[in-house]
Amino acid sequence: MEKKACKLSNKTSVTIHSCATCSKSFSAKARLEDHMRTHTGEKQFSCSVCLKRFSRKGHLYNHMKLHSGLKTFSCNVCSKCFSEKSTLISHLRTHTWEKPFSCSECHKSFSDRRSLSIHIKRAHHKLRKFCCNICSKTFKTIQILTQHVKIHSEIKQFTCGICLKGFLRKDHLSGHMKTHTGEKPFTCPVCQTSFADKCHLTRHMKSHSQYKNLCCNECSKRFKTKRSLTLHMKIHSALKEYICNVCSKCFSEKSNLTRHMRTHLVEKPFSCSICLRSFSQKAELDNHYRVHSGIKEFSCDVCSKQFFLKRTLTRHMNVHSHQQKCTCDICFKVFS
Questions:
Q1: Of 65-69, 126-130, 276-280, 328-332, which has the strongest mean pLDDT?
Q2: Is the full-model pTM beyond 0.70?
Q3: What's the rounded Cα separation, in Å, for the pair 153 and 142?
Q4: CA distances from 191 to 194, 201, 271 (A)
Q5: Where does CATH 3.30.160.60 sit in the chain?
Q6: pLDDT by residue (tens digit) across 182-236?
Q7: Count of CB atoms within 10 A of residue 304's CB?
Q8: Domain 1-70 belongs to what topology?
Q9: Nearest-5° angle of CA 213, CA 217, CA 219?
Q10: What is the DSSP letter of 140?
């Protein structure tokens, strides 16, 4: 530990206590002693219920609230209660979509510090000693490697009891079961569209963002999500291995072939829960739900008229340009 006097004015001075390991400074010696435990790993405060140990007394105090069951902090949006104020603050960001914690390496943002720490360890930690002997991808722990190896295996031990679809992981099966129950607990705060999985909601929220940070190296078209860019890149690839056995049309993705096959079968498996209208593609159903929501998020820059769908706005713009154009219903690209 190092001490140094810092002169604040002609009459007063304060002693600064500096950490010899990371050079962080503290005004009080007790704060420095607490901080030093983060380097030594010493955890002298123990929970009398579950024996979990903590480096600071304040952390133990907050932990004890979990055992007491007392939840005094309530969310004013969804009324969910929490035992700690810090947990409530982190929870409120799920409603505001605020992400104040940013990774210095890749600039990805997170709503809480813990998620940022996990991201740094998983994405940027250089110590990855467990290597997959099939694809040579490396992992930090043997548990993560074990989960990864299942991707290369054709054995899907978790099977849906309704449609018999197989999954590599139990949590993937749990997420799939919601497609049968119709449960959609994750709702978009902007357009009220609901999703069965949180990851689907997170991906959807990017559609409301104004930023398109990902750029195609071939045509310079920009995208909001990595998935959209990946799907787009297949347009530039000449490889179309999925062939329709009815009309011989070729596709670069199996999912596109599956959607195409419904045009021959007149199959419409996606049904609106409000008016029972059916659609052949899930994207069409999602667009249809916007009609029920009443939210018109696409606005004309010329006359301010609003529309439910982007393709409808694109067609409307022809009114101002006085040109007859055709728009692709899948990617919204316009042709003269």
A1: 276-280
A2: no
A3: 17
A4: 9, 11, 19
A5: 1-70
A6: 788 888 877 778 887 777 787 777 666 655 667 787 787 777 777 777 777 777 7
A7: 7
A8: Double Stranded RNA Binding Domain (3.30.160)
A9: 95
A10: S
